[in-house]
Amino acid sequence: MSSPAADPAAAGPDGARGPDTGSAAASLVGGAADARRLAADSLAAGDPTGWFETLYAASRAGNAVVPWDVAEPSARLRALDLPPGAGRRALIVGCGPGRDAEHVAALGYTTTAFDISATAIDLARERHPGSPVTYTVADLLDPRPDWRHAFDLVLESNNVQALPTGIRAAAIPAIGGFVAPGGTLIVLAAATTRIDSDGSGPPWPLTRAEIDAFAIGGLRPVSVDQVNAAGTTLPTRWQAIYRR
């Protein structure tokens, strides 16, 4: 789970620039359209998360493009000074094909990464043979009991913004529930998009109240910042860090 990008100059949930080629630009625009169309169909059917598997499966068959499926880890994640990973457990929420999970694992964390899409997990395993990451299918809205307070580092990168507001109230505390005592939660999310005016999406930007809602159950904010990223579809991002 991650947010689609809609701009030919942007790729991925963090809006990082993609290859400067006409074909790449056209692919990204088409991918954003694919994602929004499938999300709308899924929402209309009363299934707010089913479109992720539909999109990944269609992409694998060559019938759609996953617009955030790029090789580089999130630019905002790479810019963070993360705690040392040795002896610590990390959980990547909505990992997709694994770009952020592999980055965190390379820092020494014993890393688990999950996605609701079985096809996304298959892709992650195929693309990273021999990876130390444990990739698994799981549902954020029905979290595994054994993951409660189990991870020293939890990364939520652009997943909640791909959920309609009606189910965010369940997703946000579920993410916080993964953080162990003394652990860290990183939240990266859209604060604004270029498509806010008509309400289309995903992504749907998080409000300040939604960002603040992560600070529950003993989690306290260390920093909550708005980061500018001019020239992308997500021109202002939330970058929030919490600790328990």
Automatic annotation (TrEMBL):
Protein name: Methyltransferase domain-containing protein
GO biological process: methylation
Pfam families: Methyltransf_25 (PF13649)
Keyword Methyltransferase: yes
Keywords carried by this UniProt record: Methyltransferase, S-adenosyl-L-methionine, Transferase
Keyword Methyltransferase: yes
Stretches assigned to the Methyltransferase domain: 91-183
Organism whose genome encodes this protein: Actinoplanes derwentensis
Disordered, as annotated region: 1-25
Molecular function GO terms recorded: methyltransferase activity
InterPro entries for this protein: Methyltransf_25 (IPR041698), SAM-dependent_MTases_sf (IPR029063)
Superkingdom field: Bacteria
